[in-house]
Amino acid sequence: MHYFFEPVSIPSVPVLETEARFPVHRIWCVGRNYGEHTREMGGDPAHDLPIFFAKPSDAVTMEEVLPYPLHTEDLHHEIELAVAIGQQGVNIAVQDALDHVFGYALALDMTRRDLQAVAKKAGQPWDLSKGFDQSCPISTIVPVSKAGHLVKGRISLSVNGTVRQHGDISDLIWSVPEVISILSSFVELRPGDLILTGTPSGVGPVKPGDRLEGECEGVGKLHVRYTER
């Protein structure tokens, strides 16, 4: 097949203890999946279904030093457990959902909160607040064969050495199997999909020069520092 120009390379994430990489197909995100975070954002934890939104696949980055994003004065951090899908499926039953998981990683759903607030107030889509360049820093993926399936474990984020976010995976309103099952009723999940499962309370601003360190039991750590553009 011939193209008018060279296609961009497939975004990918390294996998622990192997040279093979995980090719990223899509990035799905779950909003408001921890009770305290839902409340801090003015929502009700008892909502009927998870809130799903997406980031482009090339939002993933392994870079530890990132330029401060364009068009924002209020960049926020959101630390999340990421689920890497390794098996295709649609209308997946909850009891079968974990069979579709390849592994787990730690990711940041970076958010231009000021753009999001303006869009929400105007009743407009807020894609640009979530889906910008390098908006999904991510750690190495730990395969299920190494990590097992994560149903509990501390997840936290520090900024300049001070803990801002902390919670436990067991605190998810919708568990990983439930998220996979519900999402697969809307779209057919494919190998290479990443699902960011939600963030604990304590989200807050990041400024140029800030050092972010995320950690999740059974997954590892994630380091990012932002610089002036």
TrEMBL record:
User: Which parts of the sequence belong to the Fumarylacetoacetase-like C-terminal domain?
Assistant: 27-223
Coiled coil segments of this chain: none
Q: Which keywords are on file for this protein?
A: Hydrolase, Metal-binding
Keyword Metal-binding listed: yes
Question: Under the GO molecular function aspect, what terms does this record hold?
Answer: acetylpyruvate hydrolase activity; metal ion binding
Q: What is this protein called?
A: Fumarylacetoacetate hydrolase
Q: What is the lineage of its organism?
A: Bacteria, Pseudomonadati, Pseudomonadota, Alphaproteobacteria, Acetobacterales
Q: Which InterPro entries match?
A: Fumarylacetoacetase-like_C (IPR011234), Fumarylacetoacetase_C_sf (IPR036663)
